[in-house]
Prior knowledge:
Elements: E1 2-8, E2 11-16, E3 28-36, H1 41-45, E4 56-57, E5 62-69, E6 81-84, E7 87-88, H2 94-97, H3 111-118, E8 124-125, E9 142-145, H4 148-151, E10 153-154, H5 161-166, H6 170-179, E11 188-192, H7 196-207, E12 212-217, H8 220-230, E13 233-236, H9 243-250, E14 258-261, H10 271-282, H11 291-299, E15 305-308, H12 320-325, E16 329-332, H13 337-349, E17 361-364, H14 368-377, E18 385-388
Helix pairs in contact: 6-7, 6-13, 7-8, 9-11
Amino acid sequence: MRALCWMGVNELSVETVDDPGLVNPHDVIVKVRLTTTCGSDLHFLGGYLPGMREGDVIGHEFMGEIVETGPEVTSVHVGDRVVVPSFIGCGTCPYCADGLHAACDTTNPNAAMQQPLLGYPTGGIYGYTHPFGGYQGSHAEYIRVPFGDVNCFRIPEGVGDEQALFLSDAVPTGYMGADFCDISPGDTVAVWGAGAVGLMAAASARIMGAERVIVIDRFRDRLDRAAKKVGAETVDYTEVDSVYETLRESTGGRGPDACIDAVGMEGHGTGVMQAYDKVKQALRMESDRATSLREAILSCGKGGVVSVLGIYGVTDKFPMAVLTNKSLTLRTAQQHGQRYMPTLFEHVLENRLDPSWLMTHDLPLTEAVRGYEMFEKKEDDCLRAVFRP
């Protein structure tokens, strides 16, 4: 089959690789219909996350059709149209039982590779480095899905392929971030980052009852989408002296009730701190440019919640004193898509949420290298490039 492979830092190639097969009796094989880029892929593409090997198939956000099932699979069948959350759950360990599928104790066969940094294993994830399991990814014609009964969700009639695609990762990540905020009617929620996850976090905050949602970014096309598609207020941080002062002034001096960081380790900012972080990151003296995280903590109102969806490594200059003295709650996780999927289907079916507009570029898999170039460089107003194997 044809697949998009990691061949080295900042080097991708569409190659011919072996078709996946059933390994365990609970596996299924999915024929991929749609798969999309994700900002977290850029971290290992740029060499900021270790553990990739030449020839690895990348991609973790996808939907498709089941074409083969193992003998122990009972709840999904050949021919089912399904969407699959990006983190792999077993469904039976204590963490999966609590709805924390991304923390699954079972699905990462390379847990020892995470031990030095994380201390405990995460669940496995498709196409996202060997410390996260070494699973082959979704930018391919076919993909093996372990624990098919747990990880494959039949897509209801009335939910289109393009809508279902983003329920794999971008939507549940954003929804989880808003859920972390314990939103009450009348709340103001600020979101750093107007990529797909940030936009879905903003949309989810609206669904959960936030009175005001403020989205911070520097790309005009993305800020325009936040305003038009979500009804958010917007801040272009390159046009203000201080995001903190801007948010403080617009909230009567209190600050937002909750802040969501949907940017992560390759964040952009202005001023001396941005230059300092960029140099240290380029020299591999730190993994993160954490401008957005620091701004969110500083800006959040007392007693509020800071929800972190951006992916970070080892972050220095972390303002712990601000968290303590403002009585802030910090909540973060990789996305537990299995936990939210039934609710997300309901929101789509009842027209409260339509994530299909996240797709700005519709490409065959043969053009995936170019798709990632546009996505990384944000050319042609690319928000998400979608590939059709």
